Amino acid sequence: MGGLSGTLGIAINALIADQGSLEVTANNIANANTPGYTREQAILAEQQPVQIGNLLFGEGVVLQSIQSIRDPVLELRIQQENQIQGQLGSFIGGANQIQALFNETQGVGLESVISQFFNSFQALSTDPTSLPLRQGVLSAAQSLVDAFHQASASLQQIQTGLDQTVTQDVTQVNLLASEIAKVNAQISSARVSGQSAGALIDQRTQLVNQLSNLIGLNITNNESGTYTISTENGTPLVVGVQSFTLQTQMDPASGTQHVYFNQNDITSTITEGALGGTLQVRDQTVPSVLNSLDTLAASIVSSVNAQHSAGYDLSGNPGGNFFTPLTGTAGAATQISLTVTNPAQIAASSDGTPGSNGNALALASIENQPIVSGQTATDFYAGMVNNIGSQVSFADSRQQAESALILQLQNQLNSVSGVSIDQEAANLVMFQQAYEASAKVVSIVSQLMQTTINMT
Amino acid sequence: MGLRIVPDLYLTMLDAVSNDRARLNAALQEISTGRSVNSPSDNPAATAALIENTAQTNNNDQFQRSISSVQGVLETADTVLGSVIASLNQAIAVGTEGANGAISPSQQQALAQEVQSIQDTIQNLANTAYQGNYLFAGTAFSTQPFVTDPSSPSGVSYQGNNDTNKIQIGPSQYVSINLPGSTIFTASGSDVFQALHDLTTALQSGGNVAAALDEVHTAFNNLNMQRTFYGNALDELNSVNNNLSQQQLTLARETSTLISADPAKAASNLVQAEYTLNAALSAFGRISQNTLLDFLK
């Protein structure tokens, strides 16, 4: 279409396009600091030209679409590192609670009670008939028993706490999955109606990041613009607009909450995200430390009992058991208790003479005998503490590296998707000038029209 | 347009500042607590070594306590045996006087009386108890070891046993802390009570005083020899005690190396952390002050 009104049309379309571009710029500036915001760009295009006679006339500009500038590959990388970060964070949190129970650098733990227990027999050997020294053995033994009880009870409390975290995490996973399914639906309908889904996709990216911080994910993009999200072993959480829920249920064998999907126990397949880290501490670290404590307690009980039975008490009677015999290693740290309650029953004598101290010395020397897995009680315990400390220390340094990596990826993503105020300011000038120019065109066309009308 | 740079350095700067601050806090904590290891994960191997060190320190403490608690017994026994030796010397003097043929029977009776009373004194000394335990009863130290017994040839019989006790004074070092009374006083061939009894009888009945005096000499020599056990044991305990004190110092030094802060290093870490933190903060202050917007009128 030619003529003045055609020119006016072009100018007005240009005004609309520039206004739209200014709006996009304004929105970018407004969201410059919004977490997860992906900058948008107004996509301008030439209008289809018209042919008049043998001339082609350009028909101006059109605001074709508003596009978010994103890098899906980087977003995916960040989401994957997020789940490792989540796993390390919750592992360190749980394992720190365990190492605090055995923080020997601050004098907390079993070392002193083990030493004092065996030393009390040394003290008794200097005066085997002394009742105060015999009482000293009983109190040291009771302290040892109490320390084992307390350590195992604390470990069980940590386990119970982690168990609650598992339930809360699974609830959160279900909530996020249903949110994502809802946003998927909105994205899909925005797509169908040709609207820009940028804000919705940003929202979904945020939700997915929260979800991947909790649990390891596999994500696939569907053609409709929706996501299909499943856990590490392929258990579906979100399929397009539909979400699925995970259940927690008490596992009778372990007494802890396990994670189920459709009655299938998927607990052991969850290794990443905060949930993975929590499960690792609850199901591997705590049981392994408990098992070490049980082994240590059981070895002390059986070797002290054997030596005590070989001696004689103050009345010349055979010593018998010092600790209540255990039925097995499992639960030893919880069950350990004293059989001897009367100081006169302590078998310090090796031959039945009250003044003999041979058995007290033999009992004391157990401290330096390889009674636990070929190690002394102290060596074994030191190994156990070393192991816990190393696990925390290793996870700590991995977490630091992971944080640096995520920061780097985030920066990379920002260089693509982040809002640059400089760039937006330049756009502002550009669109302002374009708008002013188009307005000038309108004004000139209007004058021309006036001139034309006045001609008649 | 060229390569798009990261428009906002906020994340990087914040991360740098928080890392610097963490390092600064670590350095401050190290200096203020004097320790570089505050939990097992700070240095797992040092923590394990610390446990071994503490156990050894506790054991050494106990060895030293054991030593000081038996020193009293050993010293008392040594002193008592010193008195016994003095008494025997006196008996030898009396016997020597009695062996002189020039003295009258009544004088001999008086000397016999004197020897008898020396024997009673020695019997009392041999029954010395320390904190309720008889010193020379073997390990039967609640039993009075030497009782007057007319049916025994020497008039005294030994009720204790022939056992000894040891105590541990080092990882594999033991020391005996008593000798049974039977070894000291009533060893066959050098029985103190038999010798004194024989001397008394010889003086009373005009028997062979010289032979009886020889018996007393033999018993005296044996007792003198046995007494060295206590002196030696005390010497050994003293020297071990000194070694243990030395070891404790070494262990304390080792422990300190394991977990204590190196003040010079910690101070230089502190300075460095302060410096980098200040640099990061001042850089933070510089960024994002100006954008293109400031220049558009």
Summarize the structure in words:
The complex is a heterodimer of chains A (about 450) and B (about 300). Chain A contains ten helices and eleven strands. In chain A, about 60% of the residues lie in helices and about 10% in strands. Chain A is an alpha+beta fold and about 450 residues long. The mean pLDDT of chain A is about 95. In chain A, strand 10 and strand 11 (about 265) form a beta hairpin. Chain A has helices at about 5-30, 70-100, 110-125, 130-190, 200-215, 275-310, 330-335, 360-365, 375-415, 420-455, and strands at about 40-45, 50, 55, 60-70, 215-220, 225-230, 235-240, 240-245, 245-250, 255-260, 265. The longest helix of chain B has about 55 residues, at about 45-100. The model of chain B has no long low-confidence stretch (mean pLDDT about 90). Chain B has helices at about 10-35, 45-100, 105-125, 180-185, 190-205, 210-260, 265-285; strands spanning about 130, 135, 145-150, 155-160, 165-170, 175. Chain B has a domain at about 70-255: Up-down Bundle (f41 fragment of flagellin, N-terminal domain), CATH 1.20.1330. Chain B has a two-stranded antiparallel sheet. In chain B, strands 3-4 form a two-stranded antiparallel sheet. Chain B has about 300 residues and is mostly helical. The interface between A and B is large, with 70 and 57 residues.
